[in-house]
Every structure is written in structure tokens, then in C-alpha cells.
Amino acid sequence: MDEFVLIMRHPDGKALVSPEQMQIWMKQTMDWLGGIAAQNKLVSQGNGLSFEDARVVRPNNVVTNGPFGEIKEAIGGYIIVRAESVDEAVEFAKGCPVLQGEGNSMEVRKIAKYNPK
Length: 117
Hints:
four-stranded antiparallel β-sheet, alpha+beta, single chain, two-stranded antiparallel ribbon, Alpha-Beta Plaits
């Protein structure tokens, strides 16, 4: 069984929902995570990533505010799951409430295993 990271993406790096809608989505997200955990497939519920107090560090000690200047979407959070295949991990991602937000998406990536020789 492999591990996959499910990455939550938001357009323009902004959360454009009301506090009430955010509260509904958070409950739905906790229920979604609980369903994955009940299958013993949740490795880490990860963390949400703040859109505030973000910096991008580039070569030559160039630091800019926020990750939003040159991108059309930002990462809002992630979880790590254990799955038999990428298809199973995609099925987990399809159930994420973040997909209710306009323009939001989920990226599914297999976690590479370091194999020192």
C-alpha cells in the first residue's frame, strides 16, 4: 500500500466564502476525514495553510509577500492517505467538501519513497 497526499487548491489564493459557509464545510470536512479514518487509511489529517503571513524565498535572497503574485491558485491545505492505488486515492479526493467551492480542485500525488543505496 502506498501513501498519497491530497492537496486542496483554491483560485487566486483567496477564501471567498462566508464564515457560515466555512463552518458548514469544516463540519463536512471532519465527517469526510472520519470516513477515511474509519477505513484505517488516514495517515495524517494535515493542516490548513494560511493565506496570511506567507512569503516566497527565491535565489539571491529575494523575499516577496505571499505566494500569490505569479500564480492563479494557491494551496489551502492537505491530507495524507494510505491507498492501494492512485485510483483509490482519487476516490477519497472526490469526496472532499473543498470541491464545493467554485474553482477549487484537489491534486493527488503519490509520496515518493526515499531509497538510499
